[in-house]
Amino acid sequence: MDTGDRLLTPGEVAALFRVDPKTVTRWAAAGRIGSIRTPGGHRRFRESEVRALLEGEGMLDEAEEMGKPRNVGPAASTGPGPANAGMY
Amino acid sequence: MDTGDRLLTPGEVAALFRVDPKTVTRWAAAGRIGSIRTPGGHRRFRESEVRALLEGEGMLDEAEEMGKPRNVGPAASTGPGPANAGMY
DNA sequence: TTATACTTGGGTAATTCGGGTC
DNA sequence: CATGTCCGAATTACCCAAGTAT
After folding, report:
1. In the CATH hierarchy, which fold is given to the domain comprising A5-53?
2. Is B63 close to A35, i.e. CB distance below 8 A?
3. Domain ranges within chain A, ordered by starting residue
4. What is the C-alpha to C-alpha distance for residues A80 and B66, in angstroms, rounded to an integer?
5. pLDDT digits (tens, 9 = 90+) for A6-54
6. Which residues of chain B have a CB within 8 Å of the CB of A76?
7. From CA B54, how far away is CA B26, in angstroms rounded?
8. Is the CB of B70 under 7 A from strand D?
9. Which helix (DSSP H) or strand (DSSP E) does residue A50 occupy?
């Protein structure tokens, strides 16, 4: 089925996180947050995913996370939390 | 397999992409998305094509989810070569 | 036939993009 | 290393009126 969640614009996500839209764009470019691109090139973000990030997604042990742009491994680590888009 | 051949109206596609119906019409006019024209001049879009675009089938780099199961779908889809000449 | 909802077209703001810099 | 701001350019959003679709 469809993901069923609405899509948010960079400005919306930026307002939710209290950051600049440009910062949100960088998160998407770094792969830290999933992004859907419109045929025109603009990005759209999943409401559920943004929400999970805002909630803190149950990450209690926030370990320090820094250098990560180099995704060498298959997947696995990197993530303070499952930044995956939860589909419910 | 005709399940994915349903035709969607500009309003439907616009709602899926979280954009204005006018923008969808512009995509069709620019050749970024296939469109069928009704005798009256209105446009209709193929559900399969829109779905593929939403999934981000054209994504290669960013938004690399790590904890995402590599779902190897058997159906490669369709492809009539959607004349996608879009790039930014 | 009438009626309502939607789509079309052009034009003008607002937003976003990408890169570069601090 | 991450974030905020600058610029130019592209894309998108909302305004109008008229026609089509159901």
Report:
1. Multidrug-efflux Transporter Regulator; Chain: A; Domain 2 (1.10.1660)
2. yes
3. 5-53
4. 12
5. 999 999 999 999 999 999 999 999 999 999 999 999 999 999 999 998 8
6. 66-67
7. 17
8. no
9. helix A47-55
